[in-house]
Amino acid sequence: MSTPAESLQSVLTPSDQLAVTSDGDLTIEGAVAADLIARFGSPLFVFSEATLRANYRRARDAFAAVWPGPVNVMFAIKCNPNMAVRAVLHDEGAGGDCFGIPEIEATFAGGADPDKIALNGGNKTAEELERAIELGITINMDAAEEIDDVVAAARKVGKSVRVNIRLKVVPPEFEHFVSDAYLIDGDFRPTLQRWKWGVTQETAIAMVERLKGEPDLDWTGWHTHYGRMSARAEDYRAFQGECARMIGAVATATGVAPRVIDMGGGWARERDPESRSADAKGPPIEKQAQAVVGALRHHLEGAGLDTSKIALWAEPGRYIAGNAAVMLTSIGTIKSDAGYVWFNVEASENNLPAICKEGSANHVTVASGMHRKADAQADIVGPICIPSVLAEGLMVPADVVTGEPVAILDAGFYAEAEASLINSVPLPATVLVADGEAELIKRAQTWQEVFATQIIPDRLRRQDLGDNLWRG
Question: Which fold has domain 4-43+326-419?
Answer without folding.
Answer: Lyase, Ornithine Decarboxylase; Chain A, domain 1 (2.40.37)
